[in-house]
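README: folding subset

This subset contains proteins for which both the sequence and a predicted structure token string are available. Records are stored as plain text. Below is the entry for Chlorophyllide a reductase subunit Y (531 residues), shown exactly as it appears on disk.
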Amino acid sequence: MDHLSQDIAQDAGLPGAADRPAERTGAVLPAVGLDRPATEAGCHGGTELSKASARAAGNAELMDRYETDYPKGPHDQPQSMCPAFGSLRVGLRMRRVGTILSGSACCVYGLTFTSHFYGAKRSVGYVPFNSETLVTGKLYEDIVEAVHQMADPDKFDAVIVTNLCVPTASGVPLKMLPRAIDGVRIVGIDVPGFGVPTHAEAKDVLSAAMLAYARQEAMEGPVLPPRDGRIDKPTVTLLGELFPADPVVIGAMLEPMGLAAGPSVPVREWRSLYAALDCAAVAALHPFYTASIREFQAAGRPVIGSAPVGLEGTDAWLKAIGDACNVPTAQVDAARNAMRGAISAALGRNRISGRITLSGYEGSELLVGRLLVELGADLRYVGTACPRTPYNADDAEWLMARGVEVRFRASLEDDLGAFAAFAPDLAIGTTPVVQKAKERATPALYFTNLISARPLMGPAGPASLPGVIASAIANKERFLKMQDFFGDVGHGDAAGIWEDTPQDRSGFRAAYAKSLRKSQNAVDNGESVGC
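--- output ---
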């Protein structure tokens, strides 16, 4: 793949190996964070204090970049799981890639537990710390030692080192780690909960860091070809995690235009990064991969938004891809005509009847919304934890033109408010939305596992959703019977089994909430309240 290194170097205009600074090794660093107790920064200290600590510790540039790449909403950020779960999952799914976490023990335990629950089958390295090692810089030396211990070229192509909240807030400098050890690439990233709003965007943090590393390698000389060999057609890299059938469907749509589907990013092994960069265009199917898009643009690759979902979405997407890849008009029109016929037939055979509200945190919510509307659903609301970007603007405009309320950086309160306002026949959403809906005897489906994990692209999309949605809506009578049977037993403070009649303790809750607000205000004002 010599042409890849030349192509990317020419497009990017970046320095070659001779201009790259020499590799840094684990030199002893000056103490970090000595101007404040370590326990006041990070996940226990409040978001604003953590950001201020990170800036004071030398991470101002990182905080500025995250605020630009991942803008938040009117509230602080969506309620979601720890964002580092996203980047951790990306690394754990890659072949011959090791992972080291640096953070509070409780955070590392929760992240690894959740990852193994979701199917991870490998160990995660952990570098513990205490106040002394954190403020004296010894934690960094411990990380360097751990990296050297793990960097076995017989086992790994790369080792990912991730700073969680406290090390990031304290300025532990992963950028000082060696670039490589015995041929094993070392990639350091910071994924603090106070800087990266969602776990979906943390996938972008790691993907972009690896793309940047791979792009530099490609400029320096030959790199490994794909495991299955190079594709003899121009390829379209697919940005975003997809249902396994979707890349196959997209490949079939691209074939009449003389194109092929390239790798999906996040990738499953390091060498796929080179093939992802070696593309004719990038399809930002999930539009929030801002840092990854920046790497592709630095390599001179055009980026196309939206996705081949539904009739109108597929038609517009194929035209945009054809224009970006300079495909002759006749070939583009042939592909568009074929898809119009196939998708129109699929939409005619599959319909949805019912009022729906939709919310989630995967980044594909607007795409699913478009498909639901074309299938006939009375869609009233789409909420996504991800931000508005140039690559989902067309989807948002399309939905709003059809009377759908679209909310970016939606909070749980936004989603529950939409459920209450629109009284849907079906609520599709996150776990707490589903729980609230079922408490109100309304059918509900968890977006991540039951909706987004289905084929959505091209002709396969219209056939994948109506069955599960019709089945769920048909359960309304069952929910009503259950509600009638249980009555008002077992909700709120009276939930569970009791020997005595539960007493109203709302006064205690109000007093505790007031005390909690007072403590939080003290933290936000920089006062020390302990940990």
